[in-house]
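As a warm-up, study this chain.
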Amino acid sequence: MKQVLVSLLVVSVTLFVSCATTSTVEQNPKTQQWLVEEQSIPEGKALVFLYRPTAFFYWPITFMVHANEKPIVPISNGGYYRYAADPGKTRFWGQTSTVDSIEVEIEAGQVYYIKCQVVGLTEVSHPKLTLMPKEKGRQGIINCSLIQ
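Now compare it with the structure written out below.
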């Protein structure tokens, strides 16, 4: 039992360290696709990158992210999605056993990053959505894969 716990701790630390990158966004080859996407904002829209960093805990839990009442994407562990949003006040929200939401005043031509997480105890886990500053959002999305 002790050996299993030690092995689990080593795996957890390894995953944590591998996800904490020190390279800049532009140096990371995984970022090329979404850096191009970031510069291709549809006319009259804004881009919202919804992303969920890889986490050891809660990895099997997926929740739907909505913009107002419209379902956008089931956000999964280690994934990101590019959403073309209309200007105006938008309520982004997700639900598991509880609901979490944030309101964002969307401006055409802008880029936004919303970090989606699962927090809490396993039995009562719930989503947490956070509007991130652009640079922190770019760093957070580096190891995420596009959700098709």
